[in-house]
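hey m, so remember when u said the tokens were messed up on ur end? i reran from scratch. heres the input so u can diff it against urs
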Amino acid sequence: MIQPLYRMIAGRSVARSNVPALLGLVVPLAAVFGLEAGLVAGRLALLFAVILGWQAAFLRLRGQPFGPEGLVCALLLAILTPADAPYWQLVLGASFGFVLGELVFGGRGRNIVHPAIAALAFLMFSFTGEGYRAGPELPVWTLAPALAVLLLSGQASWRVLVPAVAVLGICHVLGAADALALLSSGAILAAFLFLAADPVASPSTNAGRIVHGALTAALAVLFTQAGDAFGATVFSILVMSIFAPLIDQCAIMLHARARERRHG
């Protein structure tokens, strides 16, 4: 599987700035603070220390400038992990996700999965009894500012989100019992918005984004047959992020063949 060169270039340029994501996480973080009575503060401080420490070490080694991607990853993990999660598990999960999900690839724009998804998947696979798959209580309305900011800034594509919502709606109409749960959970919608629609970990072609969003939602519905809806969503995003370069490659090949047929 060869990642298209243009996708690497586009990923590096469009994803250098995570300021829109930081702004979009303000309201969800405030809601989590209110729901958990300040318990998130210690978790957030720990995640900042671990992730920013790894980021500083790798950036110093490579001579690269500091970026806000570590802050975004720490905020996402603080919001999407349980309030009573043991700190030592968070240290392991954050280290695994950020180092192996992003830093070893050369930094933001070169990775194929979002580091927060890698961290969440690691925690869910490794510590099945800690409630990581259940997901936190996050009001859906807190994501409205993030949706506006990310769409307007281009840090999330409607071509990923609209097909995902459409597939979930169709599955609900067809009788899938957990499709409505996927649509009504703030934590799951946050995963779709910040992680599935991430401009680096999702396809770069318009056709690829549509396929990516639709298949991510379809896999999430399928995976709910074997576990919690939030865990199913995380695993579906992880799988589709891995296959995003292949989806782009197929979209490019189909477009090239269509042009050849039109021009004889």
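this time it looks ok to me. The radius of gyration is 18 Å. if urs says something different then somethings off w ur setup not the seq
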